[in-house]
What does this fold into?
Amino acid sequence: MPRLPWPEYFMNITYLVSERSTCTRRRVGAVAVKDKRILATGYNGAPAGAPHCLDVGCLREQLGIPSGQRHEICRGLHAEQNVIIQAAVHGINIRGAELYCTTHPCVLCSKMLINCGIRRICYAEDYPDELAAAMLKEAGVTAGKHDFTPPMRPEHD
It folds into this structure.
């Protein structure tokens, strides 16, 4: 039996990480990798110590805000933001790393990833944000959809 190729290995891990998500709309996981080593992981959810959407409900859902709009009206941080934060908190340099994520980053996360020096993004699912894709391209960050079939995901408890 052949070994699992690196991209599939890391992409599988992004989906495992996403299982920690507390977002009621979309579970997202992200993994920063350099030299085939995991540097940091992140999933989307409320800041540490704050109530989670699973517990108090989704404000964006209650207000009827469509996916991809008005990110500031959300209790949660995005998975990509949490990767950057976790790396910073633990003193890990992610400049020059690759980011594997379940979903293409939004424009807010794309700007942060550009500034922290991520050189390549590999994602499995599209996200409706043309500006994010344009800015990544302008900044020379390679972003590509990986032909990957996500594992079956159980519903939140």
